Batch of 2 targets.
Target 1
Amino acid sequence: MTIAELISTEVVKVPLESKVKPDVIRELVQILMDAGKINDMEAVVEAVNTREELASTGLEAGIAVPHAKTDAVNDLTVALGISPDGCDFDAMDGQPSHLFFLLLAPPDQSGPHLAALSDIAKIAGSRSFCKLLRNARSAEEVVELFLED
């Protein structure tokens, strides 16, 4: 399953309200909780934060991919948050992150998790697509961009 197949308006938030890393993580997890995609918000927040302590998932070019494996999901799940102003996510290039892909997978599902990370790497490689996402004004517009891609 591709990232595009997992993106729907219920798991996209434009713009994110949070301005600091821990709050961004919590806001992304809340999106999935509200969408009925997870069954234990605190367990997910803890799993993502534990993963972040190993190494930041703030990549380059304004993209961050906080992720974790957790029993709080049954299948690969994604939330996408967009912060037009950016947020310090301890990115590799030292720049603010604007596009946040939260990925969650059950502990026994490595394949889909790795495939999703690969999809995000491809998205990160398209500066024009990332710019379109950053400039999106609504969840509907984001979903439309993924459908067109």
Note: The mean pLDDT is 94.
Target 2
Amino acid sequence: MAKTRLHIYVSGRVQGIGYRGYVSREANRLGVAGWVRNLYDGRVELVVEGEEDKVNYFVEICKKGPPFAKVDKVEVLSEPFKSEFFYFKIRH
């Protein structure tokens, strides 16, 4: 299976409602690796690596978010696969 890496920026009501914890749990459930963090401008930034089909499904999860999220925009940038992560974590 092909491996891929994406850099994702999520805008909307995505801070203070459990978004990072939600996507972290989902990433670990799917077996993709990387990290998520809040940005000072109100967005959430993510980097994710793994099997292409799982990473693409993870993007769909990011577009929805947890129940109290309101995702307005998801920007997805493709990057070269680096295999630098072993699990998915929340960065502070």
Note: Strands lie at 3-13, 33-38, 44-51, 70-79, 88-90.
